[in-house]
Amino acid sequence: MNEKIYVTGHRHPDSDAICAAITYADLLNHLGKTAVACRQGPLNEETKFILKRFGLENPLLMTDARAKIRDIEIDTPTIIQKNETVHHAWHLMLQTQNRSLEVYDENGKLCGICTTSNLASVRLHPDTDLVTLMSTASLDNIARTVGGNIIYEPEHFKTNGVIHIITLEREDMDYYVLEDGISIVSNGDEKHRMVIERGCKCLVITCGMKASKDTIALAKKKGCAIIETINDTMNTARVITESYSVDQIMTTDIITFNENEYVEDVAMKMRHSRVRSYPVLNDAGEVVGAISRYHTRNYQKLKVALVDHSAVNQTFQNIDMAEIVAIVDHHHIGNIQTQMPIEYRNHKCGSTCTIIASLYKENGLLPDRTMSGLLMSAILSDTLNFKSATTKQEDRDTVKWLAEIAGIDDVEMYAREMLGASISLKDATPHEILTRDLKNYQIGKFHFAIGQTNYSRQDEVQKILPQFLENMEKEQQENKLDIMVMLFTDVMGNGSMFYYYGPMAHVVASVIETTFDDHSGFDPNIISRKQQLMPKLSEVLLNL
Question: Percentage of the chain surpassing pLDDT 70?
Answer without folding.
Answer: 97
